[in-house]
Design brief:
With 603 residues, the chain is of the alpha+beta class. It is 27% helix and 33% strand. The strands form six sheets. The chain has an eight-stranded antiparallel beta sheet with strand order 11-10-16-7-8-15-12-13. Helix 12 (508-525) runs antiparallel to helix 14 (592-599).
Length: 603
């Protein structure tokens, strides 16, 4: 096997907003370079989206990599390492990892929709990694396409020259050969020294039932050979390399990977947790002294409890969580118990879509029926004795007297919306205690920047934003800092018993509205018992909202024909006493559906 000179290697990723055609373009590139034959491609769209859930929702969740061979117009053979990245805000960390392994990016923009919030976020990440960027306008064959206008938009909003953007239609294949040539001529080759000590970046890892942990690497210096002994600098563990290879998307084995190449290795590693993403891999005998910069670890921002509907499924759930954790380093969980819901797990996610996808994967791949508690975020509490604690479950909140102040996380949100929906978008942000930072125009669309508290956003902000803008607004956010807020713990009491699964931390000004909505919902959901059931929302000892579920009554006076009124009254009094006693000792059965529906209550 002849080694390709480093000047003939191109590593690039495709970045874009959701649905602008990244995965479809990747399909065409694979097809045109002969990575897969037409027969293998037949009937299969988005070859790189391997999970069923990715195909159904039409989104990319895991970044995927492929190696393509291309013979350019100059007669030379080139190797392309292509990384298809997710476009959704929750998977931004997948994007950052992929970008660190590449030197350039294809920026795909939909010629009919223009620049969206996520386009901006991903481009800025690419620019932070010093990428050379080639703008590609997709869907130019649509009647609604306005390529000239969109080029202008790219220049105005992102500030990169788009005059020679490549015009394509990824679906039909129009203009895709020009993309291949642009990759050769406009993207830089990687740099690296073949003779130096091995230094490679650990880009990703996942678990394979037959091979153990498969590690995706980008070799920076030196060569990664089969049979050599390597050391992970972060965990300081050493392994013997068993396989070296790359994906075409099929696995192909080779003897070695040189500088600038992206490929995979397996080395009998048992746990994905042993392979820290962003770690530096080096030679065990003569390690390099300096580690590569790596990337920021994925920090969970949204927490919620997951409980099995059937208590017997707990062990299955535990095993399923372990398996998902093997392939998703950003997902964290710990065990917790709840009086209402039994045993379950407190899980951390990168955002609501991440939460939804993990939930869907658990129910689909492991056939589990789950209940999720209301999502909450991490609060920092400063206690009167000078301690600082982090709380991500409202149940763990200490006594109010011990708390000096509570800080909540804030985000900076960027929202792009057509002009006619601007009013309702601004109102939505104001209602969620937001503070406007700036408002600018990008063509006919407004770009708003808002500071918002994260706990107002995790609840249902995204859904509301989509409904007030009829689906046209796009939204992207990043965490900024923590600010002190007037937060209170609101509990829902059913028959004077607090229901821990429904307690939440809310802002004092929003507590009454949220509480009222919650008790009204619970009233509809709890079936009548033999006694009257009060449902209350309370902050500390103060009840802020109340509803009552009426009692089922037996007609005790049915057998009284005629006679004195006192006889009837006596029977009614006796019944009343019985009801009172019942209410004291009676147990209220709250059906599981009531929890699920109450947790979905829309503020």
């Amino acid at each position: 096997m002849t080694t390709t000179p480093i000047s003939n290697i191109r590593n690039f990723s495709i970045v874009a907003h959701i649905d602008h055609g990244k995965s479809t373009l990747a399909d065409r590139l694979i097809q045109m370079t002969g990575g897969l034959t037409d027969r293998e491609m037949a009937g299969k769209e988005q070859v790189l989206d391997s999970m069923d859930i990715e195909r159904e929702r039409g989104i990319t969740i895991k970044a995927q990599t492929v190696r393509l061979n291309y013979r350019a117009k100059d007669g030379k053979n080139y190797i392309f390492n292509l990384m298809d990245t997710p476009g959704h805000v929750d998977f931004a960390y997948e994007v950052s990892r992929s970008l660190a392994a590449c030197e350039g990016s294809l920026l795909v923009v939909d010629a009919s929709q223009g620049v969206e919030a996520q386009t901006l976020a991903n481009v800025y990440q690419a620019l932070d990694n010093n990428h050379e960027i080639v703008p590609v306008l997709n869907k130019v064959d649509l009647p609604a396409a306005e390529p000239e206008k969109v080029k202008q938009q790219i220049e105005d909003v992102i500030g990169i020259d788009a005059s020679d953007a490549v015009m394509i239609s990824a679906k039909t294949g129009l203009g895709v050969p020009d993309v291949l040539e642009a990759i050769v001529t406009r993207l830089p080759p990687p740099k690296g020294d073949r003779e130096a000590t091995l230094k490679a970046l650990l880009v990703d890892s996942w678990y394979d039932v037959y091979l153990g942990v498969v590690v995706l690497i980008r070799v920076v210096d030196g060569t990664m050979k089969k049979g050599s002994r390597i050391r992970m600098m972060g965990t300081n563990a050493a392994y013997d390399v068993e396989r070296v290879g790359f994906f075409t998307p099929k696995m192909e084995q080779v003897d070695e990977l040189g500088p600038g190449e992206i490929g995979f290795i397996t080395a009998a590693i048992k746990e994905v947790a042993d392979t820290r993403v962003g770690d530096t891999i080096t030679d065990d005998k003569k390690p390099v002294t300096e580690m590569l910069p790596g990337f920021k670890p994925a920090i969970p921002v949204v927490f919620c409890g997951l409980f099995p509907v059937d208590a017997n499924d707990f062990e299955t759930l535990r095993a399923a969580m372990g398996k998902l954790r093997l392939n998703d380093a950003s997902f964290s969980y710990e065990m917790e118990t709840s009086a209402a819901l039994g045993f379950g797990f407190r899980c951390g996610f990168l955002g609501l879509l991440h939460l939804e996808i993990i939930q869907e994967r658990l129910s689909r791949e492991f056939d589990l029926n789950l209940i999720a508690t209301a999502p909450s975020v991490i609060y920092k509490m400063h206690l009167t004795d000078g301690q600082e604690i982090e709380i991500h479950n409202p149940v763990d909140m200490p006594d109010v007297v011990k708390i000096a102040d509570i800080e909540e996380p804030w985000i900076e949100a960027t929202i792009l919306t057509p002009d006619e929906y601007l009013g309702s978008v601004l109102k939505l942000c104001q209602d969620r205690r937001g503070a406007q930072k700036e408002l600018t125009y990008v063509g006919s669309r407004a770009m708003v920047k808002y500071d918002l508290p994260l706990n107002e956003v995790v609840f249902d902000f995204y859904d509301r934003l989509k409904s007030v803008s009829k689906g046209y607004a796009s939204f992207d956010y990043h965490l900024t800092d923590y600010k002190v807020a007037d937060l209170v713990k609101m509990q829902i009491l059913v028959n004077a018993e607090p229901v821990d699964a429904l307690s939440m931390l809310v802002h004092r000004t929003r507590a009454e509205g949220r509480g009222r909505a919650m008790v009204e919902k619970m009233k509809e959901l709890i079936p009548p018992h033999m006694f009257q059931i009060p449902i209350q929302a309370a902050i500390g000892g103060k009840v802020i909202a109340r509803e009552t579920v009426r009692a089922l009554r037996k007609d005790v006076t049915a057998k009284c024909y005629g006679g004195d009124i006192t006889r009837k009254r006596k029977l009614l009094e006796k019944q009343k006493e019985g009801k009172k006693k019942m209410r004291q000792f009676g147990k209220v059965d709250i059906p599981q559906e009531a929890f699920i529906a109450a947790l979905k209550v829309d503020s």
